[in-house]
Amino acid sequence: MSARNPGISLDLEYISKIKVNTQTVLKRAQHIQGQKIPTKQWQAAWLLKAVTCIDLTTLAGDDTPSNIQRLCLKAIQPVEYKLLKKMDMHDKVTTAAVCVYPSRVADAAKLLEAAKSTLPVASVATGFPAGQTPLETRLQEVRMAVADGATEIDIVINRTLALTGQWEAMFDEIRQFRMVCGNAHMKTILAVGELGTFTNVYKASMVAMMAGSDFIKTSTGKEAINATYSVAIVMARAIRNYYLFTGYKVGFKPAGGIRTAQECLVWLNLIKEELGNDWLCPHLFRLGASSLLTDIERQLYHHVTGQYAAYDELPMA
Questions:
Q1: Which of 91, 164, 226, 315 is deepest in the core (most CB within 10 A)?
Q2: Phi/psi zone of residue 278: left (φ > 0), alpha (ψ -120 to 50 degrees), beta?
Q3: What is the C-alpha separation between 303 and 273, in angstroms, rounded?
Q4: Who contacts 64 (Cβ-Cβ below 8 Å, separation ≥6)?
Q5: Which of 55, 107, 154, 295 is catalytic?
Q6: What whole-number distance in Å separates Cα of residue 68 and Cα of residue 187?
Q7: Are 236 and 253 in contact (CB under 8 A)?
Q8: What is the DSSP letter of 190?
Q9: Which of 74, 187, 203, 217 is catalytic?
Q10: What backbone torsions phi and psi does residue 40 show, to the nearest 5 degrees?
């Protein structure tokens, strides 16, 4: 992870003056989507880069210790060694982290330790996905996840506070989450599909960073609208401006609905265009995904063999 963002004092006067031009954002998103993406060996290199930025995730009601074991083993070796060797890749490739519910953190931490892996365990928390439980309950959930071995915490904001313009109250809540995270890095989920406007998304992004978020994340994956290129541009511009104000680089994590290799190539290009090459690393860019890895493997298999494997033929951990 990157250097911690300590946060700054909330500047309500600045927040109140923020206005986002919707048409400009949509035009920029259309331009990004229309750009050419890498092909052949350059595409394979970008797809391997994407693998290293994935928070391999399971957030299902039927998660069990055996599910978590499969997730962790897949995260440790996300791409078959034979494929890597044929691409002349001899460095170890892992995903960026595994992401689970708080009640499954101990399972994941134990399995990774047994496998002698230093892969981080991320946990959603603070009443995920709605963020509507009492504040003390949300704080205790963070404490428990950290105590069980989570080194990254994906919190959710209380959208009611954002929608009603209670930015100071939202700032105070996030600061409290930051404190109980301790040494764990904190990713703040904005649930952009429920914020209504690009202006609210920008304001929520800036308040979250001022409160000490190490990453800002688009979505829980449970909303009707999740990660979109247009909302990512708004969040990326907020990250860029925060860096110009403070000198601290905050990471970005799109999540929800990212399923294909082609989509993730657009995401990588968007980050390169909006934030620069410094952000194209797991310390500052993550992809929240559960099924994306399967399609990336399929594309890498095609790059190496010239053929597409059926999904059920791909190697599984």
A1: 226
A2: alpha
A3: 26
A4: none
A5: 154
A6: 21
A7: no
A8: -
A9: 217
A10: 55, -130
Structure tokens at 19: 């206005």
Q: What are phi and psi of 289, to 5 degrees?
A: -155, 155
Cα-to-chain-centroid distance, residue 111: 22
**Identity of residue 209:** M
> Phi, psi (5° rounding) for residue 74?
-70, -40
Q: 99: Cβ–Cβ under 8 A, 6 or more apart, which residues?
A: 55, 56, 57, 58, 59, 122, 123, 124, 152, 154, 288
Find all residues with CB under 8 Å of 5, minimum gap 6, and list them: 209, 212, 213, 214, 246, 248, 249, 250
8 A C-beta contact, residue 129 and residue 222: yes
Q: What is the pLDDT of residue 307?
A: 87
- Looking at residue 56, its pLDDT comes to 97
Nearest 5°: phi and psi at 185? -75, 145
Active site residue 11: no
Distance of CA 107 to the CA centre of its chain: 21
Task: Identify whether the C-beta of residue 171 lies closer than 8 Å to the C-beta of residue 154.
Answer: no
Residue with tokens 């963070």: 142
User: Which residue out of 187, 203, 249, 253 is catalytically annotated?
Assistant: 253
Selection from 120, 294, 176, 290 nearest residue 168 by Cα: 176
Cα 11 from Cα 182, distance rounded (Å): 24
The mean pLDDT values, 10 residues at a time, for the chain of 317 residues are 86 98 98 91 94 96 96 96 88 95 98 97 97 97 98 98 98 98 98 97 98 98 94 98 97 96 96 97 95 94 85 51
Which residues in 276-298 are b (16+ Cβ under 10 Å) and which e? eeebbbbbbbbbbbbebbbbbbb
**Going by DSSP bridges, is the β-strand pair 287-289/97-100 parallel, antiparallel, or unpaired?**
unpaired
CA distance 26 to 198: 10
- Quote the pTM value: 0.95
Structure tokens at 212: 């000490």
Specify the 3-state DSSP secondary structure of 255: strand
- Please confirm, yes or no, whether 253 is among the known catalytic residues: yes
Mutual angle of helices 40-52 and 292-305, in 10-degree steps: 150
Calculate the CA 218 to chain-centre distance. Answer: 8
